[in-house]
Inverse folding.
């Protein structure tokens, strides 16, 4: 008799639990459907993710002994690092063009951060980036730090880079990227003075 009572109790418990879970599941489904119907859609075609693609163009603006995928041991001053130099030249002679072909193939527009002296050394590359409908952003006049510059030095550094790229591409930079993202306490003020729309991420 005890066994029958326990079995009956177990069956009733299972039925109750199943009914409860089924009810909760229906509630959750209804709430999810309602949220989908009432939520605002900010992106076209029901997109769930926005991806911003950027492409650095620094070749020709790098300092002596700049980092490369090769040995981390720097050579003595004045000794050319031939594999590294060849690697950087590949970017201007082949790499950027291959990337531009990919962007065109998939109809992607990117922001390209262009070092001023890179544009001066390879003007045809800078022009090709602009001609592809991509946003040309500034990256300083050379591949150099900004965190250790005075306000006047940093202002001149950024302005020279902006002017060099604009002269070659015909586009005035609206975006800016510091070397290694390491800005100085004056960078935002410098960019505002030069007409950039600035957002601090710190």
């Amino acid at each position: 008799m005890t066994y029958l009572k326990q079995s009956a109790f177990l069956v009733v418990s299972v039925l109750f639990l199943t009914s409860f879970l089924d009810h909760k599941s229906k509630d959750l489904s209804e709430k999810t459907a309602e949220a989908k119907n009432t939520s605002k859609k900010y992106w076209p075609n029901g997109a769930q993710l926005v991806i911003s693609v950027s492409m650095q163009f620094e070749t020709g603006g790098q300092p002596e002994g700049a980092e490369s995928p090769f040995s981390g041991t720097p050579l003595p001053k004045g000794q050319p690092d031939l594999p590294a130099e060849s690697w950087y030249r590949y970017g201007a002679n082949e790499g950027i063009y291959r990337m531009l072909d990919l962007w065109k193939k998939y109809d992607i527009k990117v922001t390209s951060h262009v070092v001023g002296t890179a544009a001066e050394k390879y003007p045809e590359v800078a022009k090709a980036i602009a001609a592809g409908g991509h946003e040309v952003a500034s990256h300083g006049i050379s591949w150099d730090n900004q965190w250790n510059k005075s306000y006047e030095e940093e202002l001149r550094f950024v302005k020279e880079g902006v002017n060099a790229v604009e002269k070659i591409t015909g586009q005035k930079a609206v975006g800016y990227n510091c070397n290694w993202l390491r800005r100085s306490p004056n960078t935002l003020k410098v960019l505002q003075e030069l007409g950039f729309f600035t957002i601090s991420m710190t």
